[in-house]
Structures are given as structure tokens and as C-alpha cells.
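Next up, sample data:
>
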Amino acid sequence: MSTHRGEGPSWNVGDGVVSYNDGTDSICAQAFNSEGARWVEVTLTPVNGGGPSYTWRDNNNYYGHPSATCRSLATAYEDTNYRATVKTYWGERGTTVSRGSRTFYS
């Protein structure tokens, strides 16, 4: 994820990917679809207000779960600065890992 407006940044978080699409005003989490159960959890908050906050998880408990889980930022003010904080889990590892935070503009 980057702080540049208008891009479609993505962030590889080890057990999946978090991406933002400025054209559709949506942010998506997708757990990788291999090697057992995985999930990616995103906590999304506007840095200075001006938009919705969300916490959600994309689960991949089985092979063949190809889609991502997304949230809409269509109601956020244009150019709202957001912080996405990510945690992931992988069943083979058996632990949850904090992947830090990134900021971007809606």
C-alpha cells in the first residue's frame, strides 16, 4: 500500500494480500489459497475522521476459496487518509502474526 492518490496499491502480508482499488473505492483482504487454513484480518480506521471504520477477516479454510473479502469506502470523503492494520494466521504455523500498518488515501 502506498500513500499516493489514485493508485491501486497492494500489500503482501505473508499469508495473503491487502489491496485498495481507488476506481471502485474498495479495500480487499485475500488469504492465500494454499497449504492449509489461513486468514487475513484488517482493521481500517480513518486517521483524522471523515470515513467509516471496519474490522473484517478473509478466511481460507479450504482449497478453492478464490475470492477476497472487501469493504467499501464510497462514503468516505475523497482523499481521506486511512490506516490499515493487519494480522494473519496460518494453520501450519499455528500462530497469529502482526503484520503492522500502512496508510493510504481513499
About this structure: The chain has a mean pLDDT of 86. The first strand starts at residue 10 and ends at 12. The chain has no helices and eight strands. The two ends are 12 Å apart (CA to CA).
